[in-house]
Amino acid sequence: SPNYDDTKEQPDVLPANFPNLLVNGSSGIAVGMATNIPPHNLRETIDAVIAVIRNPEITIPEILKIIPGPDFPTSGIIIGGEGLISAYSTGKGSIRIRSKVEIEEKKNGREVIVVTEIPYQVNKKVLLEKIGDLVNEKQIEGISEILDLSDRKGIRVEIHIKKDANAQVILNQLYKMTQLQVSYGITMLAILDNKPKIFNIKEILTAYAAHRREVIVRRTQFDLDKAEKRAHILEGLKIALENIEDVIKVIRASKNPPEAKQQLMIRFSLSEVQSDAILEMRLQRLTSLEVQKIIDELEEVRKLIIDLKDILAKPSRVNEIVCTELQEVGDKYGNKRKTEISTETIESSSFNAEDLNRG
């Protein structure tokens, strides 16, 4: 469609060969609406699209067995519960992302809270400054030292606990008072047919599958048109080569190229395009080897045309091409899930005063 000042044409939709909106996620705010789609695992998302294509009646619970939840590049642990189910069933929901933490005991008997993964979009520097402020303000007591030992290999933050303090209680306080655990609201809003829509997980996978089908059909039609044009020219060259002596006589008897072109069209029932191709043909194409090349190419192009027409006539073949191409992307770029999914519910992960004051 035209661009903003009507001077150029621009694509309305880019033919993504993987479900980019789900894999990379998206967030943004417009007038009266906002979207916040979390990133997902490439392999899982591709498997889910293929499952939807092969079984249009698949249910959302069945899809959730393939895509159990978002997959953040910063790893972490998702505490989803009903919020995660709601997000995938209705397009809206809330989850919690918790840092990956272990409590280690040093040789001197003191405990250390070790953080190796933090929630998505959390700034480590800001997180550590917040913990330091809470310690200085004595809102959290029992922390003796905070060490950031992170390097290019990964995150490692050590929170050293005082001798008489309870590491688990302090960890619970950190979850509640810092971004060691955060809420993440999901709103799966996207544009479909130039209209905003909130999608559940099946709807967004189905929409992507429909998009890929359209891309494959349009690509196949383009290839078919190109192949038919090529076959048309090759058929003209074949006719000329089979009647080369007569073709030469017609050309030599003509006063100029336009007349030669017209006479070839009349004499051999050729089209304008075919006549042009014959007149532009180099003499070396008259060798027996070049003649055979033209015949062989024509045969291959005819086979291609039959195959392309078969694809356009059979939706099942279009579906298989979509699945095959997706599978190739998954095999080449797919990796293991980074983010763990906890079966713990948001409610059970909340803390009460007794938890915080205990010890």
Automatic annotation (TrEMBL):
Name the UniProt record assigns to this protein: DNA topoisomerase (ATP-hydrolyzing)
Similarity section: Belongs to the type II topoisomerase GyrA/ParC subunit family.
Lineage: Bacteria, Pseudomonadati, Spirochaetota, Spirochaetia, Leptospirales
Pfam families attached to this UniProt entry: DNA_topoisoIV (PF00521)
Recorded superkingdom: Bacteria
Signal peptide (UniProt feature, chain positions): none
EC numbers: 5.6.2.2
Membrane-spanning ranges: none
Organism the protein comes from: Leptospira interrogans serovar Pyrogenes str. 200701872
GO terms for MF: ATP binding; DNA binding; DNA topoisomerase type II (double strand cut, ATP-hydrolyzing) activity
